[in-house]
Fold each of these.
Amino acid sequence: MTIISDSLQAIQASILHAKQVAGRTDEIKLVAVSKAKPADKLREAYMAGQRAFGENYVQEAIAKQTYLQDCNIEWHFIGPIQSNKTQLIAQHFDWVHSVDRLKIASRLNDARPDTLTPLNICIQINSSEESSKSGADAASIAELAKQISQMPKLKLRGIMAIPAPTKDLAKQRAQFKIVADILNALKQDLDLDTLSIGMSDDYVAAIQEGATIVRIGSAIFGARNYN
Ligand SMILES: *Cc1c(COP(=O)(O)O)cnc(C)c1O
């Protein structure tokens, strides 16, 4: 059994170490990815000090939010987005990492309640050129970023990517560098601060390439079981 407070502590120490090795002094946010994990596991992580949680499925997330109403949690939506889910996402989350097309962005903007602060947005980019993977392609990213940055109820923060998995640290870094370069190019024209890259198996490489948010699931909560 995974003792969540222990794994959280170990990950935090490892993030700090990677940050020092990279010579960085800026903030790195740990988003605990809790998809397929029951709400009492999230509460356990919360009790251990974790505040940002990432979820992939809207209905599952809303059920957990109801159970965790008494907690001060920052909710991140990180899964693929269908048009018919944009309203619930706009109402129930603080961040969305997986915006990959204009239609989704404008629907989120339209549905974001006026009572809430603008929804923090990352554009998910497809850096690996595999047509099956989701994410905007590099060619369309600048135009998409410009349009999102003009939407009043959205706050464009940066980009997110999920490169093809590999155990090879050098390959991990090379893939993340492509993403970091794309962010840097966008920063010429836009005020962006977020590079959302790195998961359980590659967050050290991501931090070396400048990740400001790492999204870590199984290394905190244990392997997922989808039954
Ligand atoms: C599941 C998921 C993660 C976490 O993956 P782990 O390998 O369990 O750390 C991170 N980001 C996204 C978008 C995910 O879907």
Amino acid sequence: MDQVEYDPRVHPAYAQIDLAAIRHNVAGLRDRAGAAALMAVVKADGYGHGLVPVARAAVEGGADWLGTAQIAESLDLRAAGISVPLLTWLHSPGVDYEPALTADIDLGVSAPWGLAEVVRAASATGRTARVHLKVDTGLGRNGAYALGGGRTDTGHTDYSELVELAAAAQAEGSVEVVGVFTHFAYADAPTHPTVRAQQEAFADAVQVAERAGLRLQVRHMSNSAATLTTPEAAWDMVRPGLAVYGLSPVPDLGSSADFDLVPAMTAVARVATVKRVPAGQGVSYGHAFTTSTETTLADVPVGYADGIPRHASNAGQVLLGGERRPVAGRVCMDQIVIDAGDVDVECGDEVVLFGPGTRGEPTAQDWAEAAGTISYEIVTRFGPRVPRVYVGGDGAGV
Ligand SMILES: *Cc1c(COP(=O)(O)O)cnc(C)c1O
């Protein structure tokens, strides 16, 4: 996303991004990863925090690699002058791999069709494509399927076939298989039996590749939750995303503070309308809220088009005048109404929607609980109408 400069004369809200928090979080994750390398996942516009500034801060904090879902994201990183190793793993048939190869971007390959297209792009560019084979060890999502549960008879699976094709492509020089990777289904529940079963299936998958003569440099499976709770799954590299941004991927097991993570995003808006109303006033569409006493209503011009979940109607809270006050009635496209009670509030007053929680404001996790979702969705939903404002270093140092 192109960065929009925040101008209070134009924008009713902004998201402040603390790059020092990103650096701190990455450094802490690095420590937990031990000898393993650290890939900071910056897909989806750096989880809504802004791709390039976040990527620079992550590298400053010690990230060895950056990971993205889509090739365009990695090309934006290269265009910004970021030179660390990049891996991009999600591709649709017909995607143009040539710019990725020219820009030295490693590619995740999940299926024979993907390998064939990468091979074609490699011969067109005269480059050797660096690929990481994606194995499905039990998530049941993308990746080539392999039998799990510690079974060693992994022959005749999609994955074994992909390994054979990749080894053949490597022998004729168009690809170099540098890695094998997988993704957990239940990393947020570390005692769930699939966590162990997927580790065993991954060990098998690594063996299948090595038996086929592939010399793997990076074997990787851990997202944020696994990096924090299952250190024995680190292999050669961990791939945290959410934790880089200071949010806990396992809120039932520990808060951000419990893992020494600092939430990087603070979402701020200003009150646009204030009115004192009597008891019995219906509020917002469908009057899903009716005042029970005389109260002050504060209209705040951010809504679901900006990223406020509509499911937080009558449930989300904000910090206003030093107090936590609730969203009254439905979240609209462009605005929400806060029941300010007897808080002394004036037009133009600052409203903190969420932040690290250090000033008493709700956190992204609080909003996630109010809306019945996960904090990932709260931060990634913030859209282009909400400019990002960077503090804690401009991220220009890499
Ligand atoms: C998004 C993603 C990650 C990061 O996941 P978090 O839960 O945010 O840490 C890691 N690996 C893959 C393949 C992903 O798609």
Amino acid sequence: MDRTSGLDRAHEHAVGWLASLDGRPVPPRADTEEVLARLGRDLQDGPIPPADVVDELAAACEPGLTAMPSGRFFGFVIGGTHPAALAVDWLVSSWDQNTGLRMLTPAHTAVEEVTEAWVVDLLGLPAGSAVGFVTGGTMANFTCLAAARDDVLRRAGWDVAERGLAGSPGVRVLVGAERHDTIDLALRYLGLGAPEPVAADDQGRIEPAALAAALDAGDGRPTIVCLQAGNVHSGAFDPFEEAVAAAHDAGAWVHVDGAFGLFAGASPRRRHLVAGAEQADSWATDAHKTLNVPYDCGLAIVRDRAALRAAMGMHGDYLILSEAGEPLDKVPEISRRGRAFPVWAVLRSLGRDGVADLVDGFCDHAAAFAEGIAAIEGAEVLNDVVFTQVCTAFGDDDRTRGVVDAMLAEGTAWTTGSRWHGRAVLRVSVSNWSTTVDDVAASLAALRRASGQ
Ligand SMILES: *Cc1c(COP(=O)(O)O)cnc(C)c1O
């Protein structure tokens, strides 16, 4: 069989899909049941040529696809895919490199090394920090918090790799009341149980005084403090200078969940939002959100390379530090795809200024949304729009939910319904490189119609 027999068809469907984005409704037109009916459930006995398989799948799935790469998709916090990253992602599958070992894939190891240094530099983090290329923000939090857990216990004289957690001094984990749920999930995976929430202010930022009080109550027990760069509802950033200093005074490891917000550090205009975050010990971010590479790509960044390797490496030993190390020592997986290739591609294509412009563009569009929504009668913007998130209500909960439903039914743009501070909200999240001023205007017009004006 010809190795490339399906690729031309895949290319054609991909180009057709991308060309359809401007004109098609953003929500899917078929639900799961309809796609199941189109697919059929029986696996036949004989072979089907790859090109026909590609055609069949594309035809069955097309109506069930959401136009997430559209410039009018403002749901959840989901980025688009930059063209350089998309093109290189095709190479990733074609090259099919298993990227765990240096000797096995020198190309990816080299690209990962360059990309690691670029990312750390762009985000304003300490030079020499290690970056593990994982599947997403959840696993980036997990990976960083594994390094944190082992390190604070090591400092208390307890080797987790050797002895496990049973019988250990235990770890206190302090989190802001509005941390992302995936912090709790990561802590569960790590056997650390539920964290202790610390009060947050009206924008969801951790209260430094409450954090200081909670730290004081710890009596020197091993402690991790999780801060946040980018609250999913408000986009707010924790007050890092004060919070990190207080945590470090108490001997805690400080982790920052910056799944989408850490990239504020790449923009001279927004850098002030993350001031002080660089003093932390670890940072989780997504490349598949603000940086616009395809799923699945998160970045687990740890200042102490040895601590990351001790937690994730095959040997679990803090002392194997001097050698160059293997790529698999920085991530939970052994086998994984070449995730650094698309990240390298988007950074190379945009350059420093382009990344700053990308971030600033999202923020400017968010500000335009806030202004446009505030001008709709009965609508209010509930957050200080400092970054990419706009959280709004259109009167009481029923009315707001009605607007969310009307937006989905109409299909011009996708906005998300959520709850924040006990209220139904409609949230707009801007994180796609292709969003234009016209997309924002068309989406605002749709919001006006959906709200009955
Ligand atoms: C999206 C998000 C996560 C989870 O990231 P995934 O890539 O979806 O696993 C964690 N924290 C914050 C603040 C997020 O926005």
